[in-house]
Amino acid sequence: MIRTLIFGAIAGYVGKKLYDEGKLTEFKNDLSTRFSEAKVKLDEQRAQNGAVTDTAPMVSPTSAARPLPN
């Protein structure tokens, strides 16, 4: 338990330093930019292949008939 507390304190200290320096905001912006670019690229590939762009999850018809395990 003491290791968990020590690790939490270290992670909190490092996280605060990164937040204060603006590194987390840069990371978030970079991540959202990469996600947007990947999404556009995927949509373009789907359009070229003529695939349906339906985003509904694929569920097999037999999955609803089975009861959930206890």
From TrEMBL:
It comes from the Bacteria. Residues 42-70 are annotated as: Disordered. This is YtxH domain-containing protein.
